[in-house]
Write a structure and sequence with these properties.
By secondary structure, the protein is an alpha+beta fold. It has 2 domains: 17-128 and 272-278, no CATH class; 147-248, 3-Layer(aba) Sandwich (Aminopeptidase), CATH 3.40.630. It is 41% helix and 28% strand. The protein contains 10 helices and 11 strands. The protein has helices at residues 2-7, 9-16, 18-38, 75-92, 107-119, 154-167, 172-179, 182-186, 229-245, 259-264, and strands at 43-47, 50-54, 63-67, 96-101, 123-133, 147-150, 190-196, 199-209, 212-220, 250-253, 268-278. Helix 4 runs parallel beside helix 5 and helix 6 (154-167) crosses helix 7 (172-179). The longest helix has 21 residues, at 18-38. The protein starts with a helix and ends with a strand.
Length: 282
């Protein structure tokens, strides 16, 4: 299913349009920078053709580099930009990740990209379809009852981190280092926790930027998955965001676990995001 969806990405882009990718890319860049800016020792910088959003975390996924400025027109140009990011993180002794959108490269560079990144010690980690929906389709099933609370205090932060660390298989101290600040959730990383019988079981964050509602961190604890809780939480979070910011597309990067839900709700693939990681600086 995932491979079939990825293969259709360019056909879907024709439907959604270039503007959709621009919103998707800008929203993600802003969100990574927001997380880095609120993390202790975090750093947000712009280098020639590269954006740095480093949360100074032991997990390389939170120490990101992304292409910026203009499309890479040739493997040599890509190699030059990657070398800048590699030097930045090597000087700081941080393991890191390179987040690479298909649309930032011409076709030849896209084909050569894995080899270019491997030359700099970057290993492929995962590919995520970037998706967009103008509105959600009506639900075709009963959605279970869920008590939903906005994250705006330390108890909410603790619940958000507990669910997230479990679902994304990260040590809780690493997760808290990025998401442990109440100020993050009050500064645009608008998040919710869903509870069943007073137990926190699912989370979501919505970041409104670049004219779109960016969806992040949608996760449900094992034992409660495939029960409709994620959909119920997603709909509530987007309703609140639309009431505050107005109607706009919703944007996300789909994990394999969530892909079938997003397709059912009417999301379309706009582009593909590949993430490569480097370990060895620490």
């Amino acid at each position: 299913m995932v491979l079939d969806v990825l293969a259709l990405s360019h056909q879907k882009r024709d439907t959604v349009g270039k503007v959709g990718f621009d919103q998707l890319e800008r929203n993600l860049r802003y969100t990574l920078s927001l997380l880095a800016a609120h993390a202790p020792g975090g750093e947000v910088r712009k280098l020639p053709g590269i954006s740095i959003a480093c949360a100074s975390n032991p997990c390389p996924m939170f120490n990101a580099a992304l292409l910026s400025a203009t499309i890479c027109r040739g493997p040599q140009e890509l190699a030059q930009r990657v070398a800048l990011a590699a030097l930045h993180y090597r000087m700081r002794g941080k393991d890191w990740s390179f987040w690479l959108w298909d649309d930032w490269m011409d076709p030849r560079t896209r084909r050569k990209a894995p080899d270019v990144l491997a030359d700099h010690g970057l290993r492929f980690a995962l590919k995520l379809p970037g998706m967009l929906a103008s509105s959600l389709r009506p639900s075709l099933r009963y959605l279970p009852e869920l008590k939903i609370r906005l994250v705006d205090d330390l108890d909410g932060v603790a619940a958000f981190c507990g669910v997230g660390a479990t679902c994304f298989n990260l040590p809780i101290p690493w997760f808290r280092q990025v998401y442990g600040s109440v100020e993050l959730f009050r500064d645009g990383y608008t998040s919710y926790v869903g509870y069943v019988d007073q137990e926190p079981i699912c989370t979501i964050a919505v970041v409104f930027n670049a004219g779109g509602h960016g969806v992040y961190g949608l996760a449900t604890l094992p034992g409660h998955q495939r029960s409709g809780y994620a959909e119920a939480l997603l709909r509530r979070a987007l309703e609140d965001s639309s009431r505050i910011h107005g109607g706009a597309p919703t944007l996300l990067q789909a994990t394999p676990q969530g892909l079938s839900l997003y397709l059912r709700l009417g999301y379309e693939v706009v582009s593909n995001l590949s993430i490569y990681t480097f370990t060895g600086n620490q």
